[in-house]
Amino acid sequence: LSKIVRLNASKFNLTLSFFGLASLIGRLVGKVALITGGASGLGKATAHEFIQNGAQVIIADIDSELGPQVAQSLGPSAYFVPCDVADEAQVADAVDAVVTRHGKLDIMYNNAGVTGPVYPPSISDLDLDKFDEVMRINVRGVVAGIKHAARVMLPIASGSILCTSSISGIMAGLGPHPYTISKFAIPGLVKSAAAELCRHGVRINCISPAPIPTPMSVSQIAQFYPGLTREQVAGIINRLGELKGAHCEDADVAKAALYLASDEAKYVTGHNLVVDGGFTCFKNLSF
Ligand code: NAD
């Protein structure tokens, strides 16, 4: 039955693209997407974008209070599953729960991430236990997401896996050492996985956004500016990524994710889509 549903959904998408109607009706009609870290920030914005485009979205997040509220606010096309990405068994369970309920997983977005401690700033004082904590979520959590998505996508030779890196994965000095190191790892593991998965009909790409005010970035930058309001800190983050008066917004990342997740990107894999308005082309950070 799930095979028939899958075939019909992809025929429906092809028909829509043929008549140029996909952008009117939705570019992810019939798709099932699991988004880690979907309860906040970029994950939440992407969940909204995917739903607007016809997808069924499952928000997998460690925040069991916020997650269900956000899923409910997104309407009947979203629901929440609790998941700590640092725990492989929980990632496997989340993927299996989706496949049991929907018969498939079309899109896996490994987006959950943390900044980790910003102090002490020097690598000479790095606390390696804290370093491990960041790596467990930002790298191991992504590897677990790729592994278990691939486990269910490979047998049907179909699927799109996305991961969130950062411009901190392109240039150093924007975030603390563990965060920077973890984000540099993502394009590498995406390439490594793509080299295998491309031969089996499964795509994998990552997105590297510029700074955007979200709970994560605001709490990170606020540590350097005690006493400032959330809005003032958000202003600092926006100025950091500003280009010609514009700055990166969560919707910019959501649109990039929409493209990579959709069948429009059917020949795109192993790619790092940088969403930074040119930031990494010309900015030269010096502290
Ligand atoms: P956010 O804090 O708004 O959202 C992160 C979400 O991940 C939260 O809902 C949180 O509960 C969840 N999460 C944290 N640890 C988890 C775990 N162990 N298991 C499952 N869920 C967990 O932050 P955001 O800015 O939206 O960050 C999303 C991704 O974007 C991260 O990977 C981050 O590194 C990346 N990113 C953010 C920015 C930025 O400026 N905001 C820029 C580039 C990249």
UniProtKB/TrEMBL annotation:
Residues 31-189 form the Ketoreductase domain. InterPro entries: KR_dom, NAD(P)-bd_dom_sf, SDR_fam. The keyword Oxidoreductase applies. Coiled coil: none annotated. The keyword Oxidoreductase applies. Keywords: Oxidoreductase. Belongs to the short-chain dehydrogenases/reductases (SDR) family. This is Zerumbone synthase-like isoform X2. The gene is LOC115747504.
